[in-house]
Amino acid sequence: MAWARSSFGDLNAVSIPKRNTQYYRNSTNQGSTVWNRNQQGTSTGKTQPYGVNPRGDNNASYSWQAPIQHQKYNTSYPGQGPIQHQKNNNALYPRPQQGPTQEKKNNNSSYPRQERTQQHKTNTWQTPDKNSVSKLETLMAGYTANVIGVVIAKDSPRSIFSKKNAGSERFLVNFTLRDSVTAFVNVTCWGSENYIKDLCAGFCIGDIVKLGNVQVQSKTSDGSDEKFRAATPVGFHLTLSENHSSLALYDGLDLGAYAALQHLPTKPNCDYYTLEDVLVNGQGLNAEHINLLAVVRKIGPARDIVTKTGKKTSRCEIVLMDESCPSFPFVLWGGELVDFSQTWAPLTTVLFIADVRVNYDDFRSGMLATADSKTIITVNPDTMDAKCLFQFAQTQTSLLAADETGSSEQADPPVDQIQDVLVVEQIANSDGLISYGQLYGVITKCDLDADNVDQFYWRRCSKCKQTVGASSGYQCTNQSCTQGALGVFNKSGEVTLDEPDTEFSLPVDISDHTGTVHSRLSEQALESLLGIQVCTLMAMSPASRTPYKWKILMERFKFYIKMGKTFKQADRRLSVRVLACCRADPAEMERNLPH
Q1: Which of 67, 119, 160, 316 is paired with 195 by a 20 to 30 Å CA distance?
Q2: Nearest 10 degrees: CA dihedral of 122, 124, 125, 128?
Q3: Beta strands in 242-311 (DSSP E)
Q4: Helix, strand or coil for residue 119?
Q5: What is residue 470's three-state secondary structure?
Q6: Cα separations in angstroms, 188 against 172, 239, 438
Q7: Under a CB-based contact definition with an 8 Å cutoff, are residues 155 and 338 in contact?
Q8: In the listed set 124, 155, 172, which residue is the last one of a domain according to the structure?
Q9: What CATH code is carried by the domain that includes residue 319?
Q10: Could you tell me if 512 and 424 are in contact, meaning their C-beta atoms sit under 8 angstroms apart?
């Protein structure tokens, strides 16, 4: 018996088994359903009620009609038993049972191909609107999306040789983006050399960015995607192209929610080694990637390094400590991480370092930790262990007696221990490392009588010692610092922030027979030369300060200086600071100057 059927769920037309007489449903009877037959086979405008002849007799004089038995959509056709509903209890007239349709892709389905195709189209994931923002957890490979998140790791720009165009280079930069507690992803930006340099200079670690029209691509099944990149919990990575994608700093109202994500470790809170564990295991952990939780004890000077391949990079060594070990070396490579480390503060910044590489250093005869492209550093993690370590570090201020004075700079030695005599030419050609020396010379420029005395003062955050300027209202902008974090959300001024530390520093030019160097005179040095307190001097009018200026101009002095290159500036300029000075003795100068 062949069955003919209309679209499933249509209550106004149901096909029944074909016989010699055409039957159709008359839905005008409200209490029951009556099946009628047209005697002539064509519509006459008026139907005569005839029941279904269960024996197939087409005699028009025979009339039999039975009402439909209603049992909660469990209906009975005239002359037939009740039909058992199996799949759609909401259909008034369910489809009769039949065997599964022979389909190659779904042998268990009894729906025709057309209905399954329509159902597939309805459930297909649709590409989001170009202005909508997607969460990483909802993304699927093969589509484009707009994403907002905080940058938790970033590499320096680099180039690779193109496989398609021999001899040409492709430029890229990699970083890791996080938009929720459980989701973070690796992002690769491709473009021309100038585009990548400009893009990389526009954001740094800790910034919240919005990516537009980025491609979602699946990770490779062999795990090669994360061999030299951070391990992420999602099954894809994002690709940003110069021609089709965009990256911009995000300034929405939910900045605080994203900013809080940078203080959550990317690994379980208790999944880390103590520094003592690393030392005890020694070479057993050689070349392994592990997790560390430690506090910064000392920040060494940054250095510009030229690799064997001729590429320029930066290097900085950090000294870590925890309750089990007072000193452990941690080396940072690349401008991004080196600049990031300049925002840290000794005995204040706690680090959760995920996937850091540890090696046995033959020169030190001990273990050494090195950050590479797989490493993600979480500053001041929001965990109980990190808070306990911070409280411990606050009790260890005695460790800084030989290392630090509360900033990232070395403690200055007493001036009587500074014995090396230098000339300006030697200072200009120095390698940029922090060093000290004596300099005999004359002050050839000094704007002590300038109208604007604010230029003589440096202001630093009272917590992290980072320089603050007038553009930020002399408020700390370092979000890793407690003062900086409060300043971001203190728009109404309800919270009283600590005043920055103020340091007097007078710009001067010092010259000798080999050249001239720009320097800054400290408050103590100026008071020893003029015999007057700086606060009294700065309260005078510019004209009243002019005689004091000529007391030190073109006079020969002996300067005790501290020199080194500044690494927070792009030009890496030389900085020379006068710690103390006195009138030069001509006989001593002749005896000590190099010949």
Answers
A1: 316
A2: -60
A3: 246-249, 288-299, 303-306
A4: helix
A5: helix
A6: 7, 5, 50
A7: no
A8: 124
A9: 2.40.50.140
A10: yes
Range of the structural domain that residue 33 is part of: 1-124
Terminal-to-terminal C-alpha distance of the chain: 119
**Cα angle value 329/481/176 (rounded, 5°):** 70
Distance CA 202, CA 82 (A): 73
Integer CA distances (angstroms), 424 to 243, 427, 516, 536, in order: 50, 5, 6, 32
Same domain, 143 and 69: no
Same-domain pairing of 375 and 442: no
Amino acid at 399: L
Say yes or no: 572 and 428 in one domain. Answer: yes
Of 237, 262, 287, the residue at which a domain comes to its end is: 262
Tell whether 574 and 426 lie within a shared domain. yes
* The total number of structural domains that make up the chain: 4
Query: Contact 170/140 with Cβ under 8 angstroms?
Result: no
Do 291 and 381 lie in one domain? The reply is yes
Q: Is residue 492 part of a domain?
A: no
370 and 286 within one domain: yes
Nearest to 355 by CA among 297, 273, 435, 262: 273
On whether residue 474 sits in a domain, the answer given is no
> pTM to 2 decimals?
0.50
- Cα distances from 275 to residues 19, 319, 353, 372, in angstroms, run 89, 11, 12, 19
Let me know whether 432 and 556 are in one domain. yes
Q: Are residues 390 and 241 in the same domain?
A: no
Is residue 489 assigned to a domain?
no
Instruction: Tell me the pLDDT of the chain (595 aa) as tens digits.
Output: 444 444 444 444 444 444 444 444 444 444 444 444 444 444 444 444 444 444 444 444 444 444 444 444 444 444 444 444 444 444 444 454 544 444 444 444 444 444 444 443 333 344 455 678 899 999 999 899 999 999 999 998 888 877 777 777 888 999 999 999 999 999 999 988 899 999 999 999 999 999 999 999 999 888 777 888 899 999 999 999 998 899 999 988 888 899 999 999 999 999 999 998 898 888 889 889 999 999 999 998 888 887 777 788 889 999 999 988 888 999 999 889 999 998 999 999 999 999 999 998 877 778 899 999 999 999 999 999 999 999 989 888 767 754 544 443 445 778 888 888 888 888 888 766 667 889 999 999 988 888 888 778 877 776 666 677 776 677 776 655 666 555 554 555 545 566 777 778 888 999 998 899 888 888 888 888 888 888 888 889 989 999 999 988 888 899 998 887 543 333 445 778 888 888 888 888 888 876 6
Spatial contact of 182 and 234, defined as CB atoms under 8 Å apart: no
Question: What's the alpha-carbon Rg for the chain, to the nearest Å?
Answer: 40
Question: Is residue 40 in some structural domain?
Answer: yes
139 with 203: CB under 8 angstroms? no
